[in-house]
Hints:
Elements: H1 4-12, E1 28-29, E2 36-37, E3 43-45, E4 64-66, H2 67-72, H3 75-80, E5 83-86, E6 91-93, H4 97-105, E7 113-116, E8 138-142, E9 145-149, H5 151-165, H6 201-206, H7 210-219, H8 234-241
Parallel strand pairs: 7-8
Antiparallel strand pairs: 1-2, 3-4, 5-6, 5-7, 8-9
Helix pairs in contact: 5-7
The structure holds zinc ion.
Zinc ion (ZN) binds near residues 5, 30, 32 and 69.
Amino acid sequence: MLYPSDLVAEALKLKPDVGLPHWQQGPTHCSHCARPIEAGDLYSTYKAGEFFSDTRDLAAFSGIVCWRCVHLRKKPLMDGLLFRLVTRTEIYPIATNVAKAWLFMTPPDGPFVITHSSTGQTQHLAWRTPVTLDKRLLTLRYGPTLYTIRPHAIRRVADLARRINYGQISWINPVLFDRKGADDAHGLVNPKALPMLQEGEREFLIGLSPGERWGLASVVHSKMPEPEIPEPITQELIAKLSPR
Length: 244
Ligand SMILES: [Zn+2]
């Protein structure tokens, strides 16, 4: 079993905080990432702050966290992982459309964790995001929501969008999107695109997942961002986390 806290700890070369106690009781689990905690393992008790609203996503009600999640609960790391792809060795920024086009259409091999703030503000993301093992089905946390995205579906919509817009003067998006997913029309097949769709394409567009519709809003539109691998920010983040 691979936990999201494993990937973050490996990429950032995290070490346990000095002075953490050793668990003395029977086997239990990290309340955040679900990792088993057994007698002798380092842990920390945890108290939910007054504004902690993510109780529903806790993996267990053990009242303790593993040493890795001690780090994941700290503000510098929460802020450092707001728009990220976390692999075992590198952490990539994915806030831009070109980075999203890369990740959603041509993802690297797993395992990795994808986190995306829904507010731009500090959020608990990494510990409650399942690890993506197979790059054919991405799991992504968007604030309180867990999304799944099939890269082949994103590529198909991009190809379809290029085809129906070939020779058009003004851009016709195959599906109406709203980047926040809040507008009533979000996800509807564009009536202007309907006459240009081939057999089965309307059904395919209707069947896109909520995560795919959200992702497409960034990568399929009149600008059609070309996929671009972002520069990792791993070292920058390590430098920010290390005590001065
Ligand atoms: Zn944990």
